Amino acid sequence: MEPSVRRLESDAEVPDEAFEDEIIDLDFHVNPLEDELLEYVEDDRAYDKLTTEFGATPVMGKWDAAYGIKEGQEGLFTQGRAKYAEDVQEACESIAVDEPIVNAGINNLNHQHHPVLKNAVAQAANDYMLDHFADEGIYTSMMVPKWDPDYAVEEIERMADENNIVGAYSWFDPKVPWGNEQFDPVFEALVEHDLPLLLHGSLAYWPQHSYIGDDMLTWTEVLGFDWPIHAMVNVVNMIMRGVFDKYPDLDVVIQEGGHWWVPFLRYRMDEFYEMHPEDIQITPRKMDSGERYLERAPSEYLRDNIYLCTQPFALPRNAREAESLLDLSMADDMFIYSSDWPHQTLDPPTWFYTSRAFDDHTKEQILSGNAKEILDI
Amino acid sequence: MVDRDNFTKVAEVGDIPEGEGEGFDVDGIEVAVFNTGDDYYAINNRCSHQRAPLCKAGDEKINAEDTWTGERGGLNAEACTVSCPWHLWEWDLETGEHEASGQRIGTFDCVVDDDDILVRI
Hints:
Chain A is α/β, with parallel strands linked by helices and 377 residues long. Chain A contains 16 helices and nine strands. Helix content of chain A is 40%, strand content 11%. In chain A, the strands form two sheets. A six-stranded parallel beta sheet of chain A has the order 4-5-6-7-8-9. A two-stranded parallel sheet of chain A has the order 2-3. In chain A, helix 10 (262-275) packs antiparallel against helix 12. The model of chain A has no long low-confidence stretch (mean pLDDT 94). Chain B is an all-beta fold. In chain B, the strands form three sheets. A six-stranded antiparallel beta sheet of chain B has the order 1-11-10-4-3-2, with no helix packed on it. Chain B has a three-stranded antiparallel beta sheet with strand order 7-8-9, with no helix packed on it. Chains A and B meet through strand 1 and helix 3 of A and strand 1 and strand 2 of B.
């Protein structure tokens, strides 16, 4: 019998079954060109400075993890560069993503020096995203300037009611953690407008100005572990400092901060808190409310208020081990699929179709269910 | 002299441009065939890391003009390797080995006979 030979011409890059499921991608980066972005800066003085020879992104001296990547900084554009809505749609077609939640992807902004210029870029990014994505029918997360909570609230009030704005994008980092009370007005605005707070890793910048950071020489350490450490610290800080007692309806999504650390946190937080909870009453929010303890066990806030993007999934190869880890990690309640397109750790949704670790419910919760619970889509 | 009974024709010379690859399904087995200019090489089409299709290596990026490398992974003819379009895992086209992990994927004998590109599955 003659062998059957067929040229592979399909644009699809993931298994056919992926196209039958609803897939929401909660971390999809677009990258406006600098000139096009700066046209949206409203303040003439800021525009003038941002368009001098100093450029739009004067970042304080930093070491970068890109040496670990075959193509260096091009790792940020491994798949390409989406500038407009049609670029996003084209990229999503090949990896079976139905609803990408896009962000402006200026992840070094938080690390730049000048707060006024940073605010100007944040304003411009939000207006660019409105024009080119939200108004074009693409669900968009607006940028929230962490460094200036007052301005963050202003931007939330300005943007929140626009069509297709479904989340508020900011960063977790080694600076002031999100449990700090200075962010209460931001939380109030987010809850009022029913927007989840998406906290993304801020371009690797622990590796300077600290003993441990200065000795981190590899991408694996910096991106693989620096970010998750700070993600964990921020999550625990928010829980133990009573953020979710004061704002029980606040949803927080950690993007690119890892996810397999959930078992560690859930058991360790409860163990330590239940052993010695007497210092909770002297945290600022509890001082105000007069409460002595948290209203619930720490792990319950983790399950109900915190969500984790899965990229890169790094699933154990053994399906039984993977299934146990998903269960211990409360994946049904906490995990949300993300691709991180177009970056070097891109995660197309292949895991769900090549491993037997996922039952139908878990798969649906991660691919769309948990995202739909917190996003108005 | 090639014993054509043991090979399957997948394409003809000229079908696969130099420096590029094409994917084929041969009796249900996905094979990527690359043209280095000197030779043709056939390798399992799926990267062992996350099953990315290697035949897409070297495809143009979206808005390639606004990136530096312009292509998603690609063929390195001199080194006789192909790098995966998703995460740039680099596969030796002769041995099927990924040096950093020590993992291997299948390679297939690939010859040209009378302008036909033949693969032995």
